[in-house]
């Protein structure tokens, strides 16, 4: 026998709203805890990088003094302190055929390597170089591929940056790949209407290192039962069958995942069980 409250549609609706609010609070609390943990890791990493840079500066200064002492001429680009500039990714706001908008970011072509500086020296004379990134038979092991995949899934949150552009607490999307992009966009028009708040075809730049770092760090949120687009990309890359994945297969995964990407006010999320099903269908068992 159903109670009067269970028979009342308005009472059932109120209970549904209360459950949704509790779920939202629980999700947000989990997200905040994950962000706090990530900030702690990033601060420790930044401190270690700063110490490493200081050591490198001291070594370079000492090496220049030794070279000068031995009257060895230096090339012009090494004779003075280098002008440090971060390579920039070019960002464009694109309108799709269904009149929705999405963000595309083109990373710069890789610059010269340490091998270019030490050309002509013997192997024993040249310093150790960074290992070459792992090759992929279909060219998918690149930061550009990851950026394209993740931004394609994050487009559901594009309009949220305009709606929350003046919120003192931020947009709630800080660990998304889109966050550093939108933080450097042309001025947004604050609005409650759907849209990015930017004109069609807007173009701007963002340091590519910020996008690459988020691809590395933002896979550590560990949200129970859900997965972010960046986590999805990392899971795909770490799958044993990733070397056999074609670009067409990756595009198929993105198309299957896109309708299931949801945002509860703090970033794009995908149901983990659904993602696992899609990855199993396209890539096979892990």
From TrEMBL:
Q: Where in the sequence does UniProt note compositional bias of the Basic residues kind?
A: 11-27
Provide the protein's localization: Nucleus
- Disordered, as annotated region: 1-28
> Where is this protein primarily located?
nucleus
UniProt keyword terms in alphabetical order: Nucleus
The molecule here is called BZIP domain-containing protein
Tell me what organism the protein belongs to: Exophiala sideris
């Amino acid at each position: 026998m159903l109670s009067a409250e269970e028979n009342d549609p308005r009472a059932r609706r109120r209970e549904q709203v209360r459950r949704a609010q509790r779920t939202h609070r629980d999700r947000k609390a989990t997200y905040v805890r994950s962000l706090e943990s990530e900030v702690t890791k990033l601060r420790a990493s930044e401190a270690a990088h700063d110490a490493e840079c200081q050591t490198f500066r001291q070594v370079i200064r000492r090496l220049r003094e030794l070279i000068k002492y031995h009257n060895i001429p230096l090339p012009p680009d090494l004779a003075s302190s280098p002008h440090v500039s971060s390579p920039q990714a070019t960002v464009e706001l694109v309108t799709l055929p269904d009149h929705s908008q999405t963000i595309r970011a083109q990373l710069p072509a890789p610059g010269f390597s340490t091998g270019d500086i030490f050309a002509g020296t013997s192997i024993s004379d040249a310093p150790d170089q960074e290992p070459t990134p792992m090759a992929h038979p279909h060219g998918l092991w690149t930061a550009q591929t990851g950026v394209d995949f993740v931004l394609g899934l994050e487009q559901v949150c594009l309009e949220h940056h305009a709606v929350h552009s003046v919120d003192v607490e931020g947009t709630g999307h800080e660990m998304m790949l889109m966050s550093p992009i939108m933080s450097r966009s042309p001025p947004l028009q604050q609005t409650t209407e759907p849209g990015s708040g930017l004109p069609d075809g807007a173009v701007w730049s963002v340091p590519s290192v910020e996008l690459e770092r988020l691809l590395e760090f933002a896979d550590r949120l560990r949200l129970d039962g859900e997965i972010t687009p960046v986590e999805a990309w990392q899971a795909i890359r770490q799958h044993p069958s990733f070397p056999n994945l074609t670009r067409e297969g990756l595009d198929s995964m993105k198309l299957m995942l896109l309708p299931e990407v949801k945002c509860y006010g703090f970033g794009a999320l995908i149901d983990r069980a659904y993602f696992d099903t899609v990855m199993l269908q396209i890539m096979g068992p892990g």
